[in-house]
Amino acid sequence: MKKKWIHSTLLVVAVALFTAGCGNDKEASGAGSNSSAQEKKTLKISFNPGPYSDQFKNGVAPYLEKKGYTITYKEFTDGIQPNVAVANGEIDANVFQHSLYLQSINEREKIDLVGVVQVPTPPMGLYSKKHTSLDEVKDGDQVNLPNEPVNMLRALNVLKDVGWITLKDNIDPLQTSLADITSNPHNLKFIATEPAQGPRALEDVDYAAIQGNFAVSNNIKLTTALQLEKMTDPFTNIVAVDSKNKDAQFVKDIIEGYHSDEFQKYIKSNPDYEGYKLPAYFK
Hints:
Elements: H1 2-37, E1 42-47, H2 52-66, E2 70-75, H3 81-87, E3 93-98, H4 99-109, E4 113-118, E5 125-127, E6 142-146, H5 149-161, E7 166-167, E8 181-183, E9 189-193, H6 198-201, E10 207-210, H7 212-217, E11 227-228, E12 237-242, H8 249-259, H9 261-268
Parallel strand pairs: 1-2, 1-3, 6-9, 6-10
Antiparallel strand pairs: 3-12, 4-12, 5-10, 5-11, 7-8
Helix pairs in contact: 2-8, 2-9
Family: Belongs to the NlpA lipoprotein family.
Main location: membrane
GO cellular component, one term: membrane
């Protein structure tokens, strides 16, 4: 009897220990799953001079903050550093460029960023402080253009649209140069500078083709352009992230923020965004 009692007692203790062990395993497993399920709730995002920072801070950030995100901001003035910073993981996303420009930087820097959502974009425009009409163009007038191949193509297409030049067919956007001009009946003198210098060049040249973000950041109204580009999707700006993060939850939330009713109401009710090309998701 004594042996049976000892065996029974040992059995009860063993079961209790086993049950406790299972409970601890479940707790540990639960803690691990909770930890792995925790979402990234801090965002580092960068902008270049222009309207995209205000769009995000006023129209998208409130949506993300309601979801629990803490957001920090950084500003760049060139087009290479913000892309390298995303590739290196220093920032999570940037907003300043169109997909063709991003493609050129990916190739140049051997990185792999992707665009995940389009944003309202001010088109490139042809501006002048010396002339009030396109009809005033004369032989030898000076025209400032962006010196980056992709954005130079945009500028040349504006000049083509107003009838000042003709261009080769099927120009490679990543290799565009002044050599792609096939006729220049007014003998226009082209001055190619960094895109950000366009507004400053406007003081010295007859005409300047200025990217929309640099026009806006220098208080040049889009409605004062003598001609705005007929913007197509490849030139609509995007939010760029590292390709390995394209399916991450924080990226999905950024996309939702831009698609939200709050963002669209902010853009449509603000006269500062008149003349912008709106993405197809706008209702």
